[in-house]
Amino acid sequence: MLTKKGVFIIAGAFAFAALSSWAGPGSVISSFKVKEPGGPPFGAYRDADYVYVIHGMGSPGHLAMKYTPTGSYVGASNFQNCRFVPEDPDHSYLGSSYITLAAEAGVVTYRKAGGSPVRWDHVDLKETLGYAHRPGSPYYFVGVAPEWSDYDYVVYRFSTGGSLVSSFVSNYGSKLAATDRFARVAGEYLITFGGYGTCGVYDPGGSLVATFDQKAGWIYGGTAGPAYPAFYGTTLWALAMQGHRDNVVYQIDLGNWTEAVAPASLGRVKALFR
Q1: Residue ranges, the chain, pLDDT below 70
Q2: Pairing status of strand 153-159 against strand 104-111
Q3: CA of 194: how far to CAs of 153, 216, 259, 266, in Å?
Q4: Phi-psi region of 197 (alpha: psi -120 to 50; beta: other; left: phi over 0)
């Protein structure tokens, strides 16, 4: 269920239009089963063309398995010289040829084609569990589990040059995804998620805009990226991690559909925010 947190503009958007079959942010659009190369998967990354699943293969590195958005296997890249868990992949602040991962001790960046790291940043941030960047944004976000709490997570916002801009505490999961649209409302949003249940939607400064319940089950690392089919707009691609077997990538609705819509009753809109 989508819930309102002090911002009414999202409700206004729904009052004017809605898909007749729309189930709301958090519903599952599609899914596919992940291949089992030996190491457990930890996150899904979606770029303009493919979905990558990052497997922790232990020392000396990891494996990035590449799929079409419908789940057809394409190939794999070796991410070398990283003994830490690849917690959460996302768009890299270095550009579209790269993937950046939260990796327990800071964030590490690889070329999509594989090889050794091209950068390793913020190694002073221990227990780094989340990372997100929206292509074109002047910021990226790093999520850390602080020593003083077993429940809350600190999210740091950095400029793409690496300077700390701000930070805030989130209690809606340790994984991160960034998007410029949520529930068909343009803006800058950071989605925090992980595990079962509720996801948080924040503005870049850390103010909570909305929450929604995801229906994919127990999810781990993921990315906000292009939907398939495209009329869903930007969606969340996240991994349901079961261990070495039966792992699934889910495409989760963020309410950004763009196809022709039918009018929605005000009563239905209000019901979404209860």
Answers
A1: 1-23, 148-151, 243-244, 259-274
A2: unpaired
A3: 12, 11, 29, 32
A4: left
Q: Which two tokens stand for residue 31?
A: 């899914």
Query: Residue 268: helix, strand or coil by DSSP?
Result: helix
Query: Tens of pLDDT along 124-170?
Result: 998 999 999 999 999 999 999 987 666 679 999 999 999 999 999 99
- Cα(119)–Cα(105) distance, rounded to whole angstroms? 13
Cα gap 144→17, rounded to integer Å: 38
pTM of the complete model = 0.86
**Which amino acid belongs to residue 237?**
W
Tell me which H or E stretch contains 9: helix 9-16
Alpha carbons 115 and 238: distance in angstroms, whole number: 24
Q: Are strands 222-226 and 208-213 parallel, antiparallel or unpaired?
A: unpaired
d(C-alpha 208, C-alpha 189), whole Å: 10
Percent of the chain with pLDDT over 70: 84
